[in-house]
Each structure stands twice: as structure tokens, then as C-alpha cells.
Predict the 3D structure of the following.
Amino acid sequence: MNQVLNFITSNQEIIYTVILMIFVGIEIIEKVPSVLHTPLMSGANAIHGVVIIGAIIVMGKAEQDNYLALALGFIAVLLGTLNVVGGFVVTDRMLEMFKKKK
Amino acid sequence: MNQHLLTICYLIGSITFILGLKMLSNPASARKGNLLAAGGMSIAIFGTIFLFSYDENGTTHYLGNYIWIFAALIIGAIIGTLAAKKVQMTAMPEMVSLFNGMGGACAALISIVEFNHLNKELGATPTAEMIQHVQPTVLIIVLGLIIGAVSFAGSMIAWGKLNGKVKDFSFTGQNILNMVVLAATLGLAVYMIFNPQQHMLLYAILGLSLFYGIFFVMPIGGADMPVVISLLNSFTGVAAACGGFLYDNKVMLTGGILVGAAGTLLTILMCKAMNRSLKNVLIGSFGGNKKGVAGATGAQGEHKEISLSDAAMVMSYANKVLIVPGYGLAVAQAQHTCHELEKILTEKGVEVKYAIHPVAGRMPGHMNVLLAEADVSYDILMEMEQANDEFPTTDVVLILGANDVVNPAAKSDPASPIYGMPILDVEQAKTVIVNKRSMKPGYAGIENDLFFRPKTSMLFGDAKKVLQDLCTEIKNA
């Protein structure tokens, strides 16, 4: 019990951030028209590619002789980049189609 | 100094994510929003590479292995850009699913490396105090691993389903098996948190999570894949947030949670557009009801066909024609020909509009994107409610490869798996012409009564070929 309370107190900043972000996330897309569901999903998909930052940290910290960490880190950065770059480019291509023609 | 710069980079990243997502939910600003978020992401990534530092043994270290990092970044960027640029419009949802899986795998890999690292520090026989100290970290690592792995495996199956490589597969008791696997995974995870030195268990958890991801998506019908992808998308967001927790990294935390929350709401909104609950989609009613539906098909009568020239005639002498596009149009890549037909008819003085069902095609907004690609003006695309008001004054409805979204069973037959889904009320119009390749049922696997109604005539053939022929016929008429 004490441990849980300690955990909450020492991480309260993060917990606040999480809770506020949940509300922000819900609030900002509440009025999305159904036409934009797919591009929005795709855009959100690209944004969670931010996980690549973790992969870069893993990779950058890995010791030169720790081949397992190097290999896994390399794959992680590669996959993360695919997620970020591919995600944003696909979203842009989808949205390119929405240009209003006059 | 560098530390402060990095903080500012991350701050910019977080703000652009929030603004970008907000702008993405409005058609006028969506594209800018996407670019804004991409810009913020670049700042956060390059900030991390050059400015990130950590303390070890009292000295400050910067990240190393630049060659490896840049090699992975460049290869990933090239493959990602090419794949995203080359992909056909029809294949975009599966592309999103694939990229989502990559993100999930990335999160899972981070967890594995970090856990090995932690395990080395713990040694073979850690004291109770040491274990207690690392427990929160282990919890986050395991959580990131499970969510990331489920998201990865699930996304791969969803990707396979959308491109037709993976067939729907379910067996009795599958839901129970899934529950057991999930319970076993979580049980192991809890055990792991109290015994972090048992590092091989991590791979058992990984295996079980992958297994769960596969069998979680397997039985869900292909038509529901966009909902599943959206859900898995929010999973990956949470997995990314776990990484943020692990490194006390605010941009990962905010970005991840933001996507987790927005993705969950988006999933629910998508379900609402189909008038179904999320539970209904996940536990699935489509597969289970097949028998009952097959029994009901016997009573249907004959359908009647219409010749190309007749169809052309009916349309060119109509006052108002409404086109209902569906997946068949997308598969045939007939959007340009469709626009051609629309122009020819308009020149003849016929009022032509499009009626777009929110879930026509394989993803919400699929038809809008497709028609916009063919330069169809935004103003003549009507959403469902608008279109339903227009059908009574419409002479001809031309249905191009749409099926479930115009199935009257959704209104009249409570036993139908799509009962309750709002549909386009095409029967209000004077004549209905349906273009399909065959009488085969649509994606939900159910028969469509509409095809046997007296007002309806069938025009068989590939959408593109039929539209081309219609264009020629109408021009010559």
C-alpha cells in the first residue's frame, strides 16, 4: 500500500500529464466529421511514431560490444522511422485529395 | 544549456501534436495540421539525437552510435516514403495498419532492450530492496511490451485481411481461448513484476502477447478492420506513452497518451457511424449469424437485368441522377471514368450528385478521398442524411459496387447482422440501377433484398468497363 502511495507521490507530475492529455485528446477531436475519420486515424498513427525517440535513446546508449542491444535498437529505430515517415506521408496523400476545386 | 534546448524541442513537439491533431479534425486545416505535427516530430527527433544526455557514474554522456542511428533513419525514411507514395488509394487503410504495426513493434523492442539492461544491473540474486526499487520500471516495461506486441501482431493480421492474404478464421470457444491467453499474459506479467530476475519470462510474455494479438483480430470481419486498426492505433499510442514514462520523456508521454485518448474516441465514433457498439464489432456478430441468413435467402425472387443502352437512355433523360459509390468503384479504379460520366450527364442538363455513406468502401471517408482524386467537386458530394432527403425527388440512382450500405434489411430485418445500421434509402427514388460484378453478397456476407425489388435493375460488369461503355452510349445517344 505504502509503495503504491509512494509511487503516486513521486510520479504525480506524470500522472497529472496523463490525465490532462486524455481530456485534451478527447476534446480536440470530438467534432470530427466522418469524412475525416481515416485521415485522422492515419495522422494519429504517425504521431504515436514518437516512440522512435525511445528507440533512438536505446540505440544511442547501447555499448559498442552489446550486439543484441545494437541489433534490436537498430531494428527499433528503423521500424519507428517507417511509422513516422510513412504515417505522415500517407496522411498527406489522403489529405491532398481534399483540396477544394473551384 | 543543451538540456534546456532539448526541453524546448520537446515542448514544441508536444504543442504541435496537440495543434496538429486539432487541425486534422477540420477539413479546411487538416493538411496543414499534418505537416505541423510532422515538423514538430522532426524537431523532437533531431533534438533527441544531438542534445539528449544522461548521467552515468557521475559524468554526462551524449548518445553514441550515430552511424547506426542515421543508417536506420535513412533506410526507414526511404522505404517509408516510397511505400506511402506508391500505395494505391484503395490500399491506404492497410498501409496505415502496417505502419501502426511498425510502431507497436518498436515499442516492444524498446521494452526488451530496456529489460535486459535492467536485468544486468539486478544480477542473478537481487535483494528484496532492489526488487522493490525497480518494480514500477518493470511494470512499465512489461506493459509497453504487451501492448506493443498485441498492436504489432494485430496490425499485421489486419493488414493481411485487408489485402486478402488472411481469411476470416474463427472456431467455437475462440473467445474463451482469447480470454485465457489474455489472463495468462497478465498473470505472468504480475509474477514478473515481483520476480524481475526471471528474465526468460519476458519472452514468454512476448509470445503470449503476439498470440493474443493474432487471435484477437482473426475472427473479426474484414469490413470492420478500420475500427480494429483505429483501436490498435490507440494501443500503440499507449505503448509509446509507456516509453515516455520509462525515460521520463514528456514528448513521448504527451504524444502517446494524446493518440491513445483520441484514438479510443475515434474508434467509438467510427462504430457510431455504423450504428454498432464496439463490443459488437470485437466479439463479432458477422461470422456467427451466417447460418440464419443463408436460410433466409431461398425466398428471394428473380432479379432483372438492364442493358447498357437502356441504362444510358434512362440516365440521359432523367432530371436528377444520384450516384452511390462503393468498394466496387474503388477496386475497379473507376473514379475517373465515373467523373467522366458525371460531366457528360451534366452537359446534357442532368443534375448529378453523389450520395456518400459514411462507411462505404473499406474505410470511413474512402469514397470522398477516391472521388476527390478524380477531381469531383466537393459541393456535389452529399452525406447520408442529405442524400436521404434527396432520393424522393431523384429519377435514377446508380449504385456502383456498393452493397451493404444500401441493404434494406438494415431497416426491416431484425435478424440481419447489419440491422440498425443507417443506410442510404435508395428505394425512395424512381429507378435504381445497380452495377455489380455478380450477384455475390457484399462484404458482410449477406444477401441484399434490394436487388430483387421491382424498381431495381442489375447492370453486371466491372465498374470501369461499364462506366466507359455508358459514357460512349450517352455521348452517341
